[in-house]
Amino acid sequence: MRAHPVRRICLLVMATMSTAFIVPSPMSVAAEEVPDQVLAWNQHAYFELIQTAAQAPPVAALHLAIVHGAIYDAVNAIDGGFEPYLGSPPAEPWYSKDAAAAVAAHDVLVWLLPNRETELDAYLDASLASIPDGPAEDGGKDVGVAAGQAMIFARTGDGRFGDPTFSVGFDAGAWRPFADGLPGNNFRWVGKVLPFLVPDAAMFATAGPLPLTSDAYAAEFDQVESLGSATSTTRTADQTAMARFWADHATAMWNRIFRQLSTSEGLSVAENARFFAMLYLTGADAAIACFQDKERWHFWRPQTAIANADADGNPATEADTNWRPLLPNPPYPDHPSGHNCLSSSIVETLKDFFGSNQMSFSATAAVGITRTFDRFSQAIAEIRLARVYAGIHFMTADAQGAALGKKVAKYREEHYFHPVS
Asked: For residue 16, how many other CB atoms are within 10 A of its CB?
């Protein structure tokens, strides 16, 4: 297996923004209300990062990767069943995995959210109170400290929260923000973050948007103009519901699905640690590669394209300055679709973890819409269409975003989380 540069560094160490996305408002959970402390601290992280700190989907995905990567290395060091991510602190198999998970998550979250230290300390006290005192708890706590510190070392100076602003262009095909879109232009830095698993996010660069003067571009232009309009007469009620459902905060939506699957499948504490780490480390790299590609192509959203069609050089497109999408535009370029990059990496990871595409699950969006699925692949098939129905992406952005996420997941499958023989 190819070693990640940060992984090699941390093995040595261990040897010695907010934006206007709607999310539900779950409270954090008591330690005794969940099967294990991986699930408890997943919910604490959800509450602190997404609900309290109001972090946007790509930011929350990166930070949940940091949290769950540390949890995984702590729990796996005790369990010993799989290859570590960064490394394995010294551990005995009888150490408390719950104590290790709680301490690792707590320490990383305090580093990420220092202004929430008091609340995080209270969560940790409750977690440790639910675990019997003694050498097993003490050993687990020590392992958690070591895993947390290794993750903090690995992610210090990793490029998070660097230069935030995508450039604004006014040539044909160039992205520009919207007065009536979601606020901000704050996420260019996501594409500059040090990847978690892959050696170079650029290895997943997409082919790019369709040429403006092509027949294929004109066909996609017509498709989103018709199906994605706020006043569309061709979009069905179910297609509208699909667009509104998948407009939920993507990281929050998927986290709720992950918890449902963990519970329904009865995952153990070690399985939960690996489950969440696989999903979020893969998803984080998909987001990094995606935002790097957004800067590479800097492509306009459909609303800009339709308003400025008289300048695109394509005689088959017609300008309409009054056209508006069903949903507000996100504050960054069209290509590739961030939701599809992240969600495709997640779908492929779910299939890999469970060894099957067949799985029944449902979810309810913040707007109250519930959708049910029989296969993981149904979700990504919906998302690819939903972003067109919402009027905020061309289909090529969705298709290439989904392909990017799938490739990132394939890389992770080949290089990480292998059983120890």
From this structure: 4
Give residue-wise pLDDT tens across range 297-345: 999 999 999 999 999 999 999 999 999 999 999 999 999 999 999 999 9
b/e burial code for range 27-49 (CB count within 10 A of at least 16 → b): ebbebeebebbbbbbbbbbbbbb
Measured CA to CA, the distance from residue 230 to residue 323 in angstroms comes to 8
Q: Which one is the CATH code of 188-415: 3.90.220.20, 1.10.606.20, 3.50.30.30, 3.40.50.300?
A: 1.10.606.20
Quick one: which of 226, 223, 187 has its CA closest to 338? 187
> Is residue 193 within 8 Å of residue 168, measured between CB atoms?
no
Residue 382: partners with Cβ closer than 8 Å, 6 or more residues away: 242, 246, 371
pLDDT in tens, 20-32: 344 444 455 554 5
The residue whose two tokens read 């590669």 is 289
pLDDT of 132-143, one tens digit each?
A: 999 999 999 999
CATH dotted code for 5-155: 1.20.144
Enumerate the domain spans of the chain: 5-155, 188-415
pTM flag (> 0.85): yes
How wide is the angle at C-alpha 190 spanned by C-alphas 186 and 192, nearest 5°?
120
Q: Which residues pair with 174 in a beta bridge?
A: 299
Hey, what are 178's tokens?
């919207």
